[in-house]
Amino acid sequence: MSPKSPKPADATNTAPTDPDLEAMLARALGQPGAEPTPADDAPVAEAEVVPPEAQHCGFIAIVGKPNVGKSTLMNALVGQKVSITSRKAQTTRHRITGMRTVNATQFVFVDTPGFQTRHGNALNKSLNKTVVGAVNDVDLIVFVVEAGHFNLADAKVLSLLPANVPAILVANKFDLVHRRGELAPWLRSMQERHAFAEYVPMSAKNPRDVSRFFGICEKYLPQQPWMFDAEALTDRSERFMAAEMVREKLFRLTGDELPYTSTVVIDKFEEDGNLKRVAATIVVERDGHKGMVIGDRGEKLKRIGTEARIELEKLWGCKVFLELWVKVRSGWADDEARVRSFGYE
Hints:
This protein is an alpha/beta fold. The protein has two domains: about 20-220, 3-Layer(aba) Sandwich (Rossmann fold), CATH 3.40.50; about 240-340, K homology (KH) domain (GMP Synthetase, Chain A, domain 3, 2-Layer Sandwich). The protein has ten helices and nine strands. A six-stranded mixed sheet has the order 2-3-1-4-5-6, with helices on both faces. Strands 7-8-9 form a three-stranded mixed sheet. A hairpin with a 2-residue loop joins strand 2 and strand 3 (about 105-110). It is globular. It holds the Pfam family KH_2. It is found in: Cytoplasm; Cell membrane. Belongs to the TRAFAC class TrmE-Era-EngA-EngB-Septin-like GTPase superfamily. Era GTPase family. Its main location: cytoplasm.
């Protein structure tokens, strides 16, 4: 990641005053008489030709405990899948950068792994190092929690947030809250925990909420030239995305049976015109896990490959030939050298 951008003068991390807090809560909860924010109903306009002196750009870290919806939010903001999702905790293992350029502003979103409070192995130490590094190297932090909930895992992530970086509280899955008036006391309690600059109850699956979110983040990003092409969506390579898509299907199709320490390594990536040839190895820790992945007569492995191939063809707009193998590497998640060799920081 590039060095942290200089802060604009008005992007301090000062807590809202009580009147500001009440207005923010009313606006967030959609109460009668609440003034809408300027971006509430504005559609997301893609980038036009903007001179460098008029451009704004900055890094925004998306953080939170595992399985709170960070990757879903990231994909919605970018407008395309760049970070994999599944119900299994520890799905995101890398710092994924996704970009979206809207009008004169380039938003560089950084999806991070959920902070790990269990299993102190080499893999989890690597994931936690990624989270800590991200929150200290950005212009804005988006702290994602489930609306109306806060537990020890949330508190652990919150304790990592530096005081000198503005932070927005995203109360995700707001659409699942049935008695929304009860959310106001919860939001006030969250303000007591940290001086959040903004409160944003939303659903990452609601396009209107996502569109509004750009306007909320924009004012915290400094005036400086864009760091990426206006059409860029991620800085990750196609080789990396191939491994991630296979891992997503692996986790989704094996459920809780397969331990989270399984991973995917790309052995071959070749391009031939409109065809990409990919060979990948699924790495598991035990022989029994290998059987889970292969399935009866190889049906599970075949389905993993088929669904990953379809996803990659949709992502790249070309034909994909995908070949999968399964290998056992006992104890790899506890071996720092092996963890690094598999591409973890």
